[in-house]
Amino acid sequence: MKMVAGDMVATYRKGGPGEKAFDCVVTCFFIDTGDDLIEYFKTIDQSIKEGGYWINLGPLNYKKELRLKLSWDEIKLVWEHMGYEFIETSQVHTSYHMQAGIKMYTERYDTVFSVARKLPKQASQ
């Protein structure tokens, strides 16, 4: 397992210093943080080996200035078009800091948990 601080696209893009194919990529409270969703998706996709997995947990709490704000259903369609099959998708209610009831104010997110497998090229076409 590896965590790297910095610009994910600059680090892991094709030709970037961290370019590598992984068996699994986990994105946690992450995919809504970028400036360009499609660039994020392409970078994550090229980082996953065929037969590998993308595991995601997080809300879609986009920056106000972001022009392209996809719903979860739209994101799922993009990933299926990129050659992924979703094995599991569920909604998870999460408290961001402490559990509700422990402190007076707690941020709560309705997040999506998903597991998708990258299909071999011939199977995804």
Structure overview:
The protein has helices at 8-12, 37-46, 72-81, 121-124; strands at residues 22-28, 48-58, 84-95, 108-118. The two termini are 31 Å apart. The chain is built from 4 helices and 4 strands. The protein has 125 residues and is of the alpha+beta class.
Q: Would you summarize the structure shown here?
A:
By secondary structure, the protein is an alpha+beta fold. 23% of the residues lie in helices and 33% in strands.
Q: Strand percentage, roughly?
A: 25-35%
Spatial strand arrangement across the major sheet: 1-2-4-3
Q: Rounded to an integer, what's the Rg over CA atoms?
A: 16 Å
Global shape: globular
What's the rounded overall pLDDT mean? 87
Structural class: alpha+beta
How do the strands and helices of this protein lay out in sequence?
Elements: H1 8-12, E1 22-28, H2 37-46, E2 48-58, H3 72-81, E3 84-95, E4 108-118, H4 121-124
Parallel strand pairs: 1-2
Antiparallel strand pairs: 2-4, 3-4
Features:
125 residues; alpha+beta; 4-stranded mixed β-sheet; 4 helices; globular
